[in-house]
Amino acid sequence: MITRDLLLDILKNIAAVIKDNRQFLTDLDAAIGDGDHGINMNKGFKAVEEKLDTVRDKDCGTILKTTAMTLISTVGGASGPLYGTAFLKAAMVVNGKMEIDNEDIVKMFDEGIQGIIMRGKAKRGEKTMLDALIPAYEELMNSLKDGSTIAEAFNKACKAAYDGVEYTKTIRATKGRASYLGDRSIGHQDPGATSSYLIIKTVADTLNR
Amino acid sequence: MKKIINNPENVVNEMLEGIVKAHPEYVKRLEGFNVLVRANGPSKGKVALVSGGGSGHEPSHGGFVGEGMLDGAVAGEVFTSPTPDQVFEAVKAVDGGAGVLLVIKNYTGDVMNFEMAGELAKADGIEVDSVIVNDDVAVENSTWTTGRRGIAGTIFIHKIAGAAAEKGMGLPEVKRIAEKVIANVRSMGMSLTPCTVPAAGKPGFELAEDEVEVGLGIHGEPGTHREKIKSAAEITKDLMDKIFADIDLTQDDEVAVLINGLGGTPLMELYIVNNEVDKLLEDKGIVIYKTIVGNYMTSLEMAGFSISILKLDDELKELLNYKADTPAFKQL
Questions:
Q1: ipTM topping 0.90
Q2: Would you give the DSSP letter of residue B66?
Q3: CB B155 within 8 A of CB B140
Q4: Which CATH architecture has domain B185-320?
Q5: Is the pTM for the entire model greater than 0.95?
Q6: C-beta of residue B136 within 8 angstroms of C-beta of residue B182
Q7: In A, which residues are within 8 Å of B149 by CB distance?
Q8: Chain A residues with CB inside 8 Å of B75's CB?
């Protein structure tokens, strides 16, 4: 169960983690993309943090929808529409709800991933954020089925996302700007998968606090 | 890295202000948005063309707003696609009732953001269609990549589809023309130096003093490979060979040539390249109908150039010759 206050904390913490990793993400992107991922994500989540004050007393759906629209209108690049679409799809699952139960969480995660697949026309194994998100989703779903608490389940999901990021080092990019490099993209971890891992890690850390 | 800026975060805003102040007879800025539209627009009953993308490619795309070319240009942050809300505002502002064609360069971010904007506009009852420019032959066009990038050849789409719209053609016709240009234009570039995004503060890649990057994109992203610097004749031949391998050109075919500077290359060197391109085309008996040399699709301060070759037919020739009057491109 994630209460509205906890959701607000999670979003605030994501903004802080993205800010701390701004240079790291930008450096990863400079190696195989155009070197703006950290800059853009930081700009987006900084704007989200500012916007959250205006929806503090609203339902979880509204809070997440506001997050989505803010990301869409501030991040730019590919990350804006992708993360924006993911948050928008997740928001629709909890429309009007003041609390998010475990079933909702699984559904939100799934809808978010489906949104990214739809918008990005990508699939697993193409060196994208999906390589962190899909294993994390599967681990979360299975852990909850096996009776883990939501905090434990997110810890396992976080580990799976981390492994997913490591996996992106071994494969060639076939989507996004990194695909132009061909085999030269091998050896580098994907910046989008990395920011996805950081987001899942922040959810896990906040839930385990 | 030295740059003549005030604050890295304000470069796009201050640049747009500067453009409007330089060319008030051509463009105005949509209040509160990073969008330039024609000063005298919207044109009632005319199909409107909107393009855009990340900043750092000036004069693309704001410099091509004007009669016979674009109706609106949307500027994102440096090398970053503009967001859907910005593109949507541009579409609303330029729609003269005959619909809007979005000219999108094939980058994942640009395509997604412009598509989202198109969805918003359609939901608002505006007729919108789009074309995706992918002229860069450096990138293999296979199921394994996002597809080819859109680079300097985009200028030909602005010019020719812009003329079609100005002549009063409907949206499906303007789109057909744009797609015909896309199908017949190929580009390939190389660079001598990387470039530095102001907010990043350091170059996107590094090159040794005697190295060049071949087949790179226009965002400082690395190219297909590196090699030692060669003579202008050899470099030009390498790039033209890639283009020739990809487009069916035979004796007596007519082409338009664009030698595009990436921002940090002197015109002297661009003209030297043009001289080589002319020789290579002449050797094959290909007729040069029109040549354009200059900085049209830049990559900040990057030194380097691209060659674009557009195969022409009578319809494209007529539209290429049609009047255009914009800050960065004039055809009288």
A1: no
A2: S
A3: no
A4: 2-Layer Sandwich (3.30)
A5: no
A6: no
A7: 180
A8: none
